[in-house]
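Per reviewer request, we include the raw input and output of the structure prediction for the construct analysed in the revised manuscript.
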Amino acid sequence: MVGVASANPAPGAVVVAGLAGLVAGALSMAAGEYVSVSSQADTERADLAREQRELATEPALEHAELTGIYLGRGLSKELAAEVATQLMAHDALGAHARDELGMFDATRARPMQAAWSSAAAFAIGAAPPLLIAALAPSEYVVYAVLAVSLALLAGLGGLAARLGGAPPLRGIVRVTFWGAVAMATTALVGRLFGTVV
């Protein structure tokens, strides 16, 4: 939107560009996330299939493998072997998926859920600048979109840093700086090429 607004377009063009960017960005994020998480899900399925084959053909080796994992976690040899026996009797594949492969039901790859979440997050983030562009007088659109976008980026950078246990100021500066660089670049492109196109 900043790039289009910098080209001094007809009124409404910034809003159309923003809406198109919101839709395209949300779909792009969803598609990228779907492909990425689908690849992860394919890997998980392949790992589980391999584990299932090994359990069927080499159960003693798989028992020893599980026992070794529990030994590494601090159990005595006898207890580790007993835990491995009990868990394999209950759900051998589940025990190996969890303790050998590190797969948990709560963290399994879910491509559609990831795609929808990514699209929604992008759309929610893109909506406030679009709303400002629709409401601001045309001569102030660039400044209004810049201000709102930078304020939102600063807030998100600080929140992400705080949630990650890092100093919020570092997150605020990093995200705001790179957001400003991206917006300045698009504004420059709009200014340089907007009157030519």
